[in-house]
């Protein structure tokens, strides 16, 4: 399990966008990390393809915006077809109309890039710039915290290991970016607050409606690959439908008006997703923190989940780097929860409202995206570590010298 750097101080569990962005944040500040991923191989599939303007600003900070823009594409127009024939276009509309960039806001469009493609770009940056590779097939089994370090038990399922190996390692901090079924969260004893919605997962709209059965086909950044989406309140036999390629093809044909001009040559991957709307009451305990889906789970409406996780990691990364370098006290890490928790709570309310609108409203109203989801309005002006220039002092009575160090590393 090579990390590329000796004596990594931070273990990052999970190699999705949130985990990889956190790794880049720490490595950029000279903090060695070890990134482990339970899956033996990188996952494939679109999963969550939406990239918001604020995420693009973060990627620009890492020098990755050009590589991402070269692969990503704008959300294409949506055609809603008249049923039951499924041939005549009943309505055409833009989910997210183009907005010209400005010097202050160079990224304003909603872009789409499959998560597997984004992960490849981030992993390549880790390897090429910092000599750090993800340890695939390595699973966190458990951990124990002490005053100055965390002892972890790892299981190595990688293809190089002929038998499962149990390894004990020591780190100063552990970060869980291991998704909705997070082992880190469970080991911390933190529970999700929220609900599981009755609606099935939906990413796109072309035939049908969410109140019944919906079938969507969305073009991706790969010209010969489409994102095939099934959903709707009446779509309850998903296990039967997805039991074989033949049943999937038959379902697509039936619910797109029995058209003969649409066919699927091969299914690459399949994911079933139920809408969970949950968040933790706090995002960390002592030396262990959680980011992304390990801390909060969103409705897919609005494409906020992955982007919110990226912001979690960006917020935590520079603070953790300052603490590990001795440039800030460990209490700085408390502001990760203080700042991100209310932002995530507000975003959950927004995306839940969007999901409800998609189910009960007309298609164009439910699917249109407005500026409030681009995340450019997220700020922490009220934070205890932010200087209020009008008052000339740090909110909460913090010392200005501490704020100087923080500001220098933003």
UniProtKB/TrEMBL annotation:
Annotated InterPro entries: FAD-bd (IPR002938), FAD/NAD-bd_sf (IPR036188), RIFMO-like (IPR050641)
Cofactor: FAD
GO molecular function per UniProt: FAD binding; oxidoreductase activity, acting on paired donors, with incorporation or reduction of molecular oxygen, NAD(P)H as one donor, and incorporation of one atom of oxygen
Keywords: FAD, Flavoprotein, Oxidoreductase
One Pfam family, short name: FAD_binding_3
Domain FAD-binding: 9-349
PANTHER family per UniProt: BINDING MONOOXYGENASE, PUTATIVE (JCVI)-RELATED, TRK SYSTEM POTASSIUM UPTAKE PROTEIN
Protein name: FAD-binding domain-containing protein
